[in-house]
């Protein structure tokens, strides 16, 4: 990178780049430039025009030498507190995964564990080009917030909230509905708009099997009062739908019941949403609910989500990785590749026909950029590269064996790009990774701390990993 001045980072030009804007017109500049002031994009266009107009005002000029400039990627469903539990729940069914592994793990976490876990998870995010994520729920939001502030990322954080259900750890089973609502209000007051406005606090419902009707309705009302979002796991497995039918007396499952009680709103981020029928897809669409599709986690133990039908119904679908114990890989780059292939393959499985046009590269790229921004209710500031939006962006090097030749830029980004092609990442106008080196935290120190914290946590939780290969 060539710089005009190193004295200040408050104004800069990035030029000589292939800029994929993801704006309403899907503009791509073959040789584009962007002018950034503080945390905001002030102008974007052809390199020559940007240089001519803004060079005198810029304290730093960076030649990207033909690399690709994109909006920062957005991961809309992840449990950052589960990063220390990577590999503890492989090859088991969902209820065993939840009751015997994840809940013992999470209930034994300290705030410091959550802090370290989120740092470790954030390192992987940054290396895969993520600048913003939607937390799906953990026990120590304050630990998460500390980590997000240090990493320089943007996030919507939630507490994992439950007030009923079987199999809950003893320390959780005593929580009342009032406790659940009050603790989230306090977290909102403490952390919402913290870290230079990079942190937002949402309300969380872990799942309907652990939520009373009152918790659902109080959560809906509180979110409206605070003008914030709700993040909830929805219709993950057939057992969930059957339980809702048996206990809530509806004719299908979770989405049908949530529609019946008026819970479906345009501030709801519905994670997974695998087992839904056509009527329920209409419910989601009509209410403006956003859906986070997590292809790796879904294929591991949930099933084929009807993503094509949701998109056809104009539902805003984005992509998430889920947590490390249900995916192991926190790379949104991998999820892009999987999302396209899985949804093409689902058509073959479901109908016995092939349709390679399902979920084309352009749509997949939208799912991790502007659709992601809409899903986290932040699309007025992020999700596309446009004047007036935040300077959240990622630099991709396409000149390696993984992407050469790049005949079609958009296609190459979805089908060829790998994590190692992500070179530099900026969030809120500040570099958080330059030339593949994270500049906000010490990776080696975090990895070392994570190894120790994870070992101690598993001992406290009494979790033993099976000796599969008769290791001596």
What is the tally of helical segments?
19
Computed CA radius of gyration, to the nearest angstrom = 22 Å
Ends distance: 50 Å
Strand content: 15-25%
What's the total count of β strands? 18
What would you call the structural class?
A: alpha/beta
Inertia-based shape: globular
How much helicity do the residues have? 40-55%
Biggest beta sheet attributes = 9 strands, mixed
pLDDT average, as an integer? Answer: 94
Note poorly predicted spans.
1-8
What do you see in this structure?
This protein has 472 residues and is α/β, with parallel strands linked by helices. It has 19 helices and 18 strands. Strands 1, 2, 3, 4, 5, 15, 16, 17 and 18 form a 9-stranded mixed β-sheet that branches. Strands 10-11-12-13-14 form a 5-stranded parallel β-sheet. It has a 4-stranded parallel β-sheet with strand order 6-7-8-9. Strand 1 (11-20) and strand 2 (28-37) form a beta hairpin. Helix 2 (94-107) packs across helix 19 (443-461), helix 3 runs parallel beside helix 4 (141-151) and helix 16 packs across helix 18. It is globular, with a radius of gyration of 22 Å.
């Amino acid at each position: 990178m060539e710089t005009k001045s190193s004295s200040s980072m408050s104004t800069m030009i990035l030029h000589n780049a292939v800029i994929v804007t993801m704006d309403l017109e899907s503009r791509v500049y073959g040789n584009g430039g962007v002018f950034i002031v503080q945390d905001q994009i002030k102008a974007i266009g052809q390199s020559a025009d940007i240089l001519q107009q803004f060079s005198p005002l810029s304290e730093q000029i960076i030649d990207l030498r033909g690399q690709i400039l994109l909006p920062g990627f957005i991961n809309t469903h992840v449990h950052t507190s589960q990063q220390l539990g990577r590999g503890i729940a492989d090859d088991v069914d969902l209820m065993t995964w939840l009751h015997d592994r994840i809940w013992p793990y999470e209930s034994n976490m300290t705030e410091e564990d959550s802090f370290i876990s989120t740092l470790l998870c954030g390192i992987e995010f940054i290396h895969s080009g993520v600048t913003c994520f939607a937390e799906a729920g953990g026990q120590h939001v304050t630990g998460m917030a500390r980590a997000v502030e240090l990493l320089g990322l943007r996030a919507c954080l939630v507490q994992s909230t439950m007030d009923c259900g079987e199999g809950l750890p003893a320390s959780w089973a005593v929580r009342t509905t009032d406790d659940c609502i009050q603790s989230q209000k306090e977290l909102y007051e403490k952390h919402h708009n913290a870290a230079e406005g990079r942190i937002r606090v949402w309300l969380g419902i872990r799942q309907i099997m652990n939520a009373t009707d009152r918790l659902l309705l109080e959560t809906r009302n509180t979110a409206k009062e605070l003008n914030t979002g709700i993040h909830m796991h929805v219709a993950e497995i057939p057992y969930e739908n059957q339980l809702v039918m048996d206990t809530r007396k509806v004719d299908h499952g979770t989405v049908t019941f949530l529609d019946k009680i008026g819970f479906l709103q345009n501030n709801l981020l519905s994670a997974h949403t695998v087992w839904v029928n056509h009527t329920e897809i209409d419910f989601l669409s009509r209410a403006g609910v956003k859906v986070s599709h997590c292809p790796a986690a879904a294929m591991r133990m949930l099933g084929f989500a009807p993503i094509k039908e949701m998109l056809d119904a104009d539902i805003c679908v984005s992509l998430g990785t889920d947590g490390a114990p249900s995916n192991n890989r926190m790379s949104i780059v991998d999820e892009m590749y999987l999302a396209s292939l899985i949804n093409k393959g689902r058509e073959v499985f479901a109908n016995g026909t092939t349709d390679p046009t399902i979920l084309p590269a352009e749509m997949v790229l939208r799912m991790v950029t502007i659709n992601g921004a809409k899903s986290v209710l932040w699309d007025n500031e992020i999700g596309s590269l446009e004047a007036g939006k935040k300077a959240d962006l990622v630099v991709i090097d396409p000149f390696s064996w993984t992407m050469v030749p790049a005949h079609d830029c958009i296609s190459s980004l979805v089908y060829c790009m790998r994590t190692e092609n992500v070179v530099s990442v900026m969030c809120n106008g500040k570099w958080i990774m330059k030339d593949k080196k994270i500049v906000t935290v010490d990776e080696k120190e975090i990895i070392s701390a994570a190894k120790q914290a994870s070992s101690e946590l598993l001992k406290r939780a009494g979790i033993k990993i099976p000796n599969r290969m008769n290791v001596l």
